[in-house]
Amino acid sequence: MNKVRMHVFVTGIVQNVFFRVNTVERAQELGVTGWVKNLPDGRVEVVFEGPKENVEKIVEWTKKGPLDAGVKNVEIHQEKYSGEFNDFKIKYN
User: Fold this and answer.
1) Cβ within 8 Å of residue 78, ≥6 positions away
2) pLDDT beyond 80 at 15
3) Phi and psi torsions of 6, nearest 5°
4) Which of 69, 86, 82 is nearest to 23 (CA)?
5) What are the pLDDT digits (tens) for 82-91?
6) Are 47 and 35 spatial neighbours (Cβ–Cβ below 8 Å)?
7) What angle do CA 66, 70, 72 make, to 5 degrees?
8) Predicted TM-score (pTM) of this structure
9) How many CA atoms lie within 13 A of 31 on its CB side?
């Protein structure tokens, strides 16, 4: 199974709309590991690792986000898969 890592930055109305909580739920459903956190500039930063198909699905989901989100832009960077995560969680600064 081909595993990948994607580092994602989501811009728009993405804080205080349960974006992080919904991302955790989706990642757990898909068996994707990594983390999500709010950035001081209003963006959400996410690192996803897992099977390519499932990571692609959740990255695609970030382009819309939860119901109350207003995603304007998603910046996606593919990085080298590390396998360093055991689960998916909210990361606090």
Assistant:
1) 4, 5, 6, 7
2) yes
3) -125, 130
4) 69
5) 999 999 999 9
6) yes
7) 125
8) 0.96
9) 7
